[in-house]
Design goal:
Low-confidence stretches: none
Number of domains: 1
Helix content: over 70%
Structural class: mainly alpha
Oligomer: single chain
Shape: elongated
Number of strands: 0
Number of helices: 3
Mean pLDDT: 87
Length: 127
């Protein structure tokens, strides 16, 4: 029997998909940012609703605050403030109820404004 003294000649290979993806993610942080057309299309699509959402939230919150003042007039201060409180509360309800139509109108206007750019970009991506 002869012993094999060359035990260090074995081939060792280790691959870790998790490690490779972590390396790729770290490397991506330090690479110059590329403007991917698909990412740009997603960003444009998200931006359509952002303006309408912000405006409708502001209007809705203001309406809720006005409604709250009207409720305070009716429930806390009472007396002379009861009738003006009802009027203020109805005004607050009206402002809150206009928030969603404002969202729809602003979003529709943004879609019309951004539509040519989105269509152009999507045509480029579909080719």
């Amino acid at each position: 029997m002869t012993e094999n003294n060359n035990t260090n000649e074995a081939f060792n290979y280790t691959y870790s998909a998790k490690q490779q993806s972590e390396i790729a993610n770290i490397r991506k942080k330090y690479m110059p940012a590329e403007e991917d057309k698909m990412e740009l299309l997603r960003k444009l699509d998200r931006s359509v609703t952002t303006k309408g959402t912000v405006i409708s939230l502001i209007v809705g919150i203001l309406g809720a605050l006005i409604l709250g003042v009207g409720m305070c007039c009716c429930l806390v201060w009472m007396g002379f403030w009861f009738v003006p409180g009802i009027i203020i509360g109805i005004l607050g309800i009206a402002v809150v109820s206009v928030a969603y139509p404002i969202y729809l109108k602003v979003t529709k206007a943004e879609r019309e404004r951004i539509a040519p750019e989105i269509i152009k970009l999507s045509d480029e991506l579909m080719k």
